[in-house]
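Lab notebook page, bench 4
Experiment: in silico fold of construct C2
Operator: M.H.
Input chain length: 241 residues
Purpose: comparison with the prior construct
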Amino acid sequence: MKRLISQLLCGLVFICGGFTSLAQAGTFSISPLRATLSAGKKVSSLTVINQGQEPTTVQLEVMSWSQTADGQDELVLTKDILANPPIFTLPPRGKQVIRVGLRKPPSANAEATYRLILRETPPPLKPNFTGLNFALRLSVPIFVLPQGTVQPKTSWQLKQGSDGLLKLIAENTGTAHIQVINFSLQPTALEKIPTQLVYSYLLPNQKREWVIKNTNLAVGTKVHLSAETDVEPIEADLVVQ
């Protein structure tokens, strides 16, 4: 069964009138949750479904996707990928197939990463409506495989900071992305630290860190890491630094 995703507002809030407990929002979903393109597969299809009771208009944009040194996403508008149709209206419970396609050949040896942004045009307000009017924004990753073989390569560290915060640090020195879905930590002779759901992408040559809340381990403590990713399970023995 295809997975569907539906997210409420990411960055677009329209305040209409005074502050009340009322809110008006559209609801749409997309499947699948990512697209992969290559020299042998230059076009990929996704389906957008309006799960609401009102028509909704959606606009598409494609952004090149990179990450800063501390793992924050950076998005820049690009024409490398064509998304079609660029704007469409969905009737209640209606669906629309959209296609993303390459506009230039893939790199010889590096994975290229993009984001397809779906923005809902704010729905018209109903008569006498006061409150908040929400518009949706979905972001779907697009990966373009190079002509050569690529794969991620991760290394992990646990550091106890001077601020008292324990941090798990992952670095991807490989040539392809990896998505960390969740991880758990088992200190030697101590109670297991609860599993953390993160669903974080780590692009090639990037680092990302997660704060382990309500946990303080002494430097030198041995900890076993178990992580679920979109590539393979990870098991590693770490020492708190």
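Observations: The chain has no helices and 20 strands. Confidence is low (pLDDT under 50) at residues 1-25.
Next step: discuss at group meeting.
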